[in-house]
Structure formats: C-alpha cells, structure tokens
Amino acid sequence: TYSRQGCTAGKYTFGILHNGDILGCTSIRDKEFIEGNIRHTPLKVIWENPHSFSWNRNLKKEDLEGFCKKCRFGDRCLGGCSNTKLTTGGSVTAENQYCSYNHSLKNRIKLFARKPTEELITMGRNFAQKGYWQLAETALAVALQRNVADFKVDLLNLYGYVSFRLGNYQASLEANEKVLQKEPNAVYALKGKGLCLARLGHSEEGIKLLKKAVSLTDESFMDPYLDLAIILSEMGRQDEAMAVIEEGRKKSTPFIAQSQALYQQLVG
Asked: Quick one: fold of 107-267?
C-alpha cells in the first residue's frame, strides 16, 4: 500500500505500451522509467517487485527541488504531475513550474523584494504569529538574501522556527547551525537544532543537544524541557521523559501548565 500523496504513477496506476513495456505513466516514455515487459515477465511480478517504480514510490518532500522542497503542500502533492516536472525541469524531482501556488508565491516575492529589510522581518514575524507559515518563510527568505549583519541572529532564529513549522527540517537545521557558528551556546538554536536532528532521524544527536539546551536555559524559557520530554516520549522512553518534566515543574511554576498535557499523557 502506498500513500495517496502526489502522482499515482507506479503506486495505483500503470501504463502498457504497444510493445508490452510497463511504465508508471504512459506520458513518461524515457527508457529509464520502463519497469519491465509483460511479454517476458508477468505483470504481477513487475508490480510487486520492491524496486519497481521506486522513482515515485519512494519520493519524499525532501527529494524535491526549488520551491516545491519548502512548500507547505509538498508532503501532499510531492510536486504534482511527474511528467510535467520531467518535461519542463528535466527531472521528476524538479520544481513544478505550472503550479498555481508556486506562481502566487513568486508574485509575492516580487512584492517583498521592494520592501525594506526591517519591514520584511516584521512582516515575517506577524505572518508567523497568525500561522501563515509560507508567507512568513517567503518574506524572511527575501530578507536573508540581503546583507543583514545587524539582525542576522534574530532573523535566522525566526527563519529556523518558521521552516520547522513548515516541516522543512533541513532548512531549519541549517539556520540553527548558522546561529551556533556565531553563538555556540545559544539556547534557542541548540533546542532548534536538536529538534531538527530528531525529526531527521538522528534522535540521539538531537537529544544530546536538547539536554545541553536544558542545562543552559533558565526558568524564563522552558521550551527545551518540554521539547526534550516530547522527543524522549516519542522514542518510548517515558521514564526519562517524566523525569525531565518533573525537573522542569520544580524549576518553573508556569511550566506546570505548559507541560500539563504531556504530563497527563505520561501519567496515563
């Protein structure tokens, strides 16, 4: 069973050419996409081969290119029609240049390019507060293309947060790493990098950084405690997660309310 996201070629549909060649989609005729021939191999064998149609069956958002890689709909559409991407961009992972959402955001970029940097950062922050993550990312990305030395760290922190909320963990990771190059003990960036590593499958590395963030933070910023506990809980390490929560609740009274939902979940 494959996800319904994106192009269905090789997941729920296939095509047969006049000569018996099997393709995920008959619009894609390149030889590299021919999975076999029913004159030589039964269709069932071709279809059930775990290596067949891997170009689409294994496609993930992080494999996409250009705007599609950071689009909030990337996990759902996976860039849309594979043939469109192939014929216009030269690859099934290329940016879909015919996507209406893509065009809409690129028009926004043209408008944002006229704005002063400080206004872009303010816009990005306001968009983020309203949950308009894509618009926030777009405004901040334009700002980051400029010489923004005076507020680079704050901008990178915000960009990293927005990218994380979009599920763009690699972009968020890179933003946090740039902050840490300037400020190795920056708690917010340590926490952000730790979360990104965990989401990217490097859980132990992420936990190590989250623990460092916990050791450096104070009662005014308790997010590292909660985030560390969440990651530990997701890994099935409930006892460790509870220990982190209890330590945080002793350290900060407001954290009791902040952590209540997870606390109740861990208590069972």
From this structure: 1.25.40
